[in-house]
User: What shape does this take?
Amino acid sequence: GMGAATASALPPFLVGALAVQLRGDLGFDAAGLGLAISAYWLSSALCSAVLGRVAEHLGARRSLRIGLCANVAVQLSIAAVARTWGALVVVLLVGGVVNALIQLAVNVLLAQEMPPRRLGLALGAKQSAIPMGTLLAGLAVPLLALTVGWRWAFVAGAALGLGALAVLPEVHRAPVPTADRPRIGDRPLLPLVVLAGAGALGAAAAGALAAFLVSGGVEAGIAEGPAGLLLTSGSACGIAVRLFAGMRADRRQGGHLRVVALMLGGGGVAFLAFATGLAGAYVMATPLAFGGGWAWPGLFNLAVVRDNPDTPGAATGVTQTGIYIGALAGPLVFGAIVDRAAYGPAWVATAVCSLLAAGAMV
Assistant: This one.
């Protein structure tokens, strides 16, 4: 599941990490880069609610096979035929649809077939795909882009998708009978919409963190190399906390959204520390920013899945729409604030988003 989710989320991170080489070859500016990456998350947001039901109808494994084959095709297309900015955007639009299908299919697979006592850890591992994607994209620059060329980084990404497809298990246990549990049709839609809004705010803050931590750190006086290492170490911290939080959640009966709210609150404090513009504050607050402000999605999905056990794809399809909208809007708004004001006000706005998300979770 984690391999599939990582391969699914990799294209936009690779585009961002390889931006210097891509812009040199395809001839587009920074605004074009932002629009290209936004296209990926926009198509994911538009398709998420529908594809959640599609994943349930087709079945998790069939959906994953289709999605992973399409993901491989998307990455190979970028490597082989993306010769202009417009072609890159078209392929990324398709990739966003594929991403939505894969992410929701993994949710369905885990919800239906993981033992309940391990579901929290499984979802935490699956949600670690995003920071893992940032790690792999960062490694692709020195290992591939600066040696054999940026196109080979997408070939390597396609190989990851093929690997996930190859290890997709065929044998599965019978789903646990759920006749005594209410279906999504018996539950009001409003709580899912509220959670989607909260997820959008939290994801906007997390997206800004991932996109601007390095440049904000450099602005605060940290050298480029150490600032990049700050992102790498923060991503690793986020992965560790997601796994630990999932293990802890498996030992609790409920209260997952309260923990999510605490994590988002901690992220808000970290973003306020960034707003001081002090290099030391960046270094000290980065673990809290990633371990709190960007480590909550696994618990968030666990709460939604456990509350909608018969239709996890449809339910997370609704909430995931908010996540994608936030991931799309957060970096765009943050960048606009930086251009009009400075990093300090932008980080304050990010903190406000995180704290509002915490309040909505409660």
